[in-house]
Design a protein that fits this description.
Largest sheet: 3 strands, mixed
Number of helices: 8
Strand content: under 5%
Strand order of the largest sheet: 1-2-3
Radius of gyration: 47 Å
Structural class: mainly alpha
Low-confidence stretches: 1-5
Oligomer: single chain
Region (Disordered): 188-242
Shape: elongated
Mean pLDDT: 85
Helix content: 55-70%
Distance between the termini: 147 Å
Order of helices and strands: HEEHHHHHEHH
Biased composition (Acidic residues): 227-236
Length: 242
């Protein structure tokens, strides 16, 4: 089977996106909005990529996908056996252990598996003595492809974004005119002198209340006069008895 190669550097890593592709990714990522569906983002039609720009972004996705193609078993065996041949193998790690490496490392790209095994072998990873277990190699492989997966995710958000119709120039003109009218009305109202606060209403007393108050006052005066007369008589009687 013929394997289509992605754009690789001499070391087998994926070549960085060209400047134009990188600029497109940054530009449209900044234009993304929240969509009606939480799984998708949205783009205004006037800000969405053109067909030609979509082709550029799609080509980058295809390069990434080709580079992320799973490894062949033979390539894994070659890289792992070379690594294990230069490191100490645990006592319980027999030849059948190679099957575990194949099963765990198959999803990763061949250049990544080879690169990670080489780094374990030359001491840049691991304890420089014992051969790593499959899980250790897989963990380092994930770290190597993390940035590439993130790049693919950013491009996928752009290509899968929901494109909604942007307001026409006529609609934008109406919105601008209405906004200007609102600003003018608000400014005019702010410049108008403030009206004086109305005086509070004066309290009023009904005639019945006035009559009742006068009657109470008269009764109180009579009672006070009677009490004063009683006190005088009592004092005179006391003096006479003395």
């Amino acid at each position: 089977m013929t394997r289509t190669l992605a754009k690789l550097t001499p070391k087998g890593t994926l070549a960085p996106a060209d400047p134009r592709t990188d600029t497109l990714v940054r530009t449209f990522t900044n234009r993304l909005e929240d969509g009606s569906d939480w799984r998708r983002r949205a783009l205004a039609s006037r800000l969405a990529p053109t067909d030609e720009e979509r082709d550029v972004l799609q080509a980058r996705v295809e390069d990434i996908d080709r580079w992320l193609s799973p490894s062949r078993d033979a390539a894994i065996v070659r890289a792992v056996e070379l690594m294990r041949g230069n490191l100490v193998i645990a006592n319980n790690a027999g030849d059948d252990a190679i099957k575990g490496y194949i099963s765990i490392l198959r999803p990763f790209p061949e250049p990544v598996v080879e690169r990670v095994c080489q780094r374990f072998m030359d001491g840049r990873l691991g304890n420089r003595t014992y051969a790593p277990m499959p899980a250790e190699v897989a963990h380092e492989c994930r770290l190597v492809i993390a940035d590439t997966l993130a790049e693919r995710g950013r491009i996928a958000l752009i290509l899968d974004a929901e494109v909604y119709a942007s307001p026409t120039e006529a609609d934008q003109a109406k919105i601008a005119a209405r906004h200007a009218e609102f600003v003018a009305e608000t400014t005019a109202r702010a410049r108008m002198p403030a009206k004086a606060a109305p005086e509070p209403p004066k309290p009023t007393i009904s005639p019945a209340a006035v009559s009742d108050l006068a009657s109470r006052q008269a009764r109180r005066e009579i009672r006070e006069a009677e009490e004063a007369t009683t006190d005088v008589d009592a004092q005179q009687d006391s003096e006479a008895a003395a």
